[in-house]
Design a protein that fits this description.
This protein is an alpha+beta fold and 159 residues long. It contains seven helices and six strands.
């Protein structure tokens, strides 16, 4: 019995993961960008949303990327790229869910990734220079798990 209990407890401990933190030098600015993006998604302001994207943007579904090179292409595919599960994950995320690494910034669910739009011609960009460059979403990720989580959250009595 004790061995079974130990296995169950160890398994439960393995499921509890520490939430990533945002420790990059421009994290506060990344959170401000996310807040603005989140409000545009929530208000269904499609022109505002596509204006906050870095092109080409990649939309991943079932591990397969679709590359959209222009605002016009993204607007034409908007409801597919920003499907209900993705919009829900963005709407439900809090600023505490924002974190970043060498790839850029994301939210806990990983529905979107964004980073600074720094031209290839910019050399030796220092942390103090980062505010010169705007943020842009470069990846939108579709996940069946996100869809389930969002559906459960929307079905809960709190919503």
């Amino acid at each position: 019995m004790w061995a079974t209990l130990a296995v169950v407890l160890c398994g439960a401990a393995a499921l509890v993961q520490e939430k990533p933190t945002c420790s990059l030098p421009d994290c506060d600015q990344a959170k401000a960008f996310f807040s603005k993006f989140q409000k545009a998604i929530d208000a269904n302001e499609k022109q505002e949303v596509v204006g906050m994207v870095r092109y080409p943007v990649r939309s991943y579904r079932d591990g397969k990327p679709t590359v959209l090179k222009t605002k016009a292409q993204l607007l034409a595919s908007y409801d597919t790229v920003f499907a209900p599960g993705v919009r829900c994950a963005i709407k439900l995320a809090t600023l505490d869910d924002v974190w970043g690494n060498w790839r850029g910034f994301t939210i806990t669910a990983g529905a979107i990734w964004w980073d600074r739009i720094i031209p290839n011609s910019a050399a030796n960009v220092q942390p103090s220079d980062l505010s010169k460059y705007p943020f842009g979403v470069f990846s939108v990720n579709h996940s069946p798990e996100t869809d389930k989580t969002c559906q459960a959250a929307q079905d809960s009595p709190a919503h």
